[in-house]
Amino acid sequence: MSSQIIPVDPFDYVVFGGNGDLAARKLLPALYHRDRDGQIPIEARIIGASRTAFSSEEYRNFARDALTDHVKPEDLHDDTITRFVNRLFYCHVDARSDEGWPELKALLDENGSSRIRAFYMAVSPNLFGDFAAKVSQFGLADEHTRVVVEKPVGRDLDSAKALNSEIARYFREDQVFRIDHYLGKETVQNLMALRFANALYEPIWNAGHIDHVQITVAEEVGLEGRAGYYETAGALRDMVQNHIVQLMCLVALEPPSVFKDDALRDEKLKILRSLHPIDASNVETLTVRGQYRAGASGGNAVKSYLEDLGEAESMTETFVAIKAEINNWRWAGVPFYLRTGKRLAGRMSEIVITFRKPPHNIFADVTGEVSHNQLVLRLQPDEGMKQYLMIKDPGPGGMRLRQIPLDMTFAQSFKVRNPDAYERLLLDVVRGNQTLFMRRDEVEAAWDWIDPILKAWEEKRQKPQGYTSGTWGPSAAIALIERDGRTWHEPD
Ligand SMILES: NC(=O)C1=CN([C@@H]2O[C@H](COP(=O)(O)OP(=O)(O)OC[C@H]3O[C@@H](n4cnc5c(N)ncnc54)[C@H](OP(=O)(O)O)[C@@H]3O)[C@@H](O)[C@H]2O)C=CC1
Ligand SMILES: O=C1O[C@H](COP(=O)(O)O)[C@@H](O)[C@H](O)[C@H]1O
């Protein structure tokens, strides 16, 4: 069964970098799924644009291969593939010359100016400004045009500001969609539903009732052919500055008055600006950097980061753990333990809210300690939520208590395919809905918190600690939380 369909108006989606890795792995499959589910209007077109001299027919073949490689075989059918690829066109353009741009303009103008136009920058960030300038120079944009900007938005605060200013020369902020695909994940949106569509949790969603929060985004994969980019980024820039910080904001924000654009983004911004600074004075106690060594992943032997990179040494971290704190009334004294890494023991992303214990244990004599209730929001795999509660073991054996989860796994509760985050976000751009996209000031506020960490690591020469591939990271990450008398949540 398909997921719920909300129609969108006809559009032309131009994907700069339409023959790149992101387009092949994520964008074309996502658009294919929306088309297969009947959400893409018959007139809509998708136009790949980059330097390679493809014809539109060759681009359709590229797309067929991408779908074969990245869509589950059971979702591929000849008729839906053919319908989808017939929407595809290709223009051969260079961001740094005028070559190909008049042809792209002519193709777009076939539909007049009333149609929605979106330009997706699936290219290296150092080309974002060039593409924006060309779109403007050749008159491809009007006031309804939208532009999608991929991460990374900068590599520090100064470069992010420069990039944002460059884009702002050509587009208004309400035309700019800075994508963070974690915001399109189902469980992440469900976090908003859980908090604000139920009266149950919000009264206890604060320091009075919550002991601490954990956010883990663990990956089994290594560099996946992106060594060049990764070596200039590292886990803090690649995952924490955007995805993990965004998740932390959604856990922590105050209720917005509506679930819409600036109302939500204003509240996220307040959290970003309330983050307790981490700098040279506390970086060694509040952060852990790691780098994977050789080990095993999914039962296979895997190389170290340095071997993957082909270098003798590197200061780039492939793992980060951070103890973050939010300086406001709601969260005073509640640590947010964050961790992410590559080549870890499994692919598992979750947010764990650990509540305080009952103020008095009336079962102390018969059952000993009672556990903290935990709410586990599983982002991937097996998206869903589990609320762990203490219950009595059935039977006459006395008051033996244990934790049992109230389990809501989406796959079991809803018999629908779980859409990829890009499916939702790509069409939100067409709708002009910026709720799940990052505003300029948010991105810059996130860098404002991250920059001093990067500087402090450099100043202290805090080298990444080695960890064996296939484990949960360096032992120092375990010590980071155990020092506080807590432990990382063990995935089921
Ligand atoms: N791949 C991924 O999983 C992810 C990627 N991203 C981001 O997405 C963006 C694209 O990444 P990715 O797809 O991996 O990169 P690739 O290197 O695979 O693709 C880059 C694309 O840019 C095109 N290109 C390069 N130079 C020019 C130019 N001067 N004019 C026109 N087109 C040009 C290339 O095509 P051609 O050579 O034909 O011109 C190619 O299509 C990056 O910002 C990356 O950080 C973000 C998250 C995940
Ligand atoms: O943005 C990125 O995300 C992926 C992880 O995304 P997921 O949806 O598979 O969890 C990560 O591998 C990549 O390094 C990073 O750039």
UniProtKB/TrEMBL annotation:
Assigned EC number: 1.1.1.49
Record's catalysed reaction(s): D-glucose 6-phosphate + NADP(+) = 6-phospho-D-glucono-1,5-lactone + NADPH + H(+)
Annotated Glucose-6-phosphate dehydrogenase C-terminal domain residues: 192-489
GO terms of molecular function: glucose-6-phosphate dehydrogenase activity; NADP binding
InterPro entries (alphabetical): G6P_DH (IPR001282), G6P_DH_AS (IPR019796), G6P_DH_C (IPR022675), G6P_DH_NAD-bd (IPR022674), NAD(P)-bd_dom_sf (IPR036291)
Gene Ontology cellular-component terms listed: cytosol
Key words of the record: Carbohydrate metabolism, Glucose metabolism, NADP, Oxidoreductase
Residues of the Glucose-6-phosphate dehydrogenase NAD-binding domain: 14-190
Pathway(s) it belongs to: Carbohydrate degradation; pentose phosphate pathway; D-ribulose 5-phosphate from D-glucose 6-phosphate (oxidative stage): step 1/3
Residues binding NADP(+), per UniProt: 51, 151
UniProt-listed GO biological process terms: glucose metabolic process; pentose-phosphate shunt, oxidative branch
Top-rank lineage group of the source organism: Bacteria
Pfam hit, one: G6PD_C
Active site feature: 243
PROSITE patterns in the record: G6P_DEHYDROGENASE
NCBIfam families linked to this entry: zwf
Protein name per the record: Glucose-6-phosphate 1-dehydrogenase
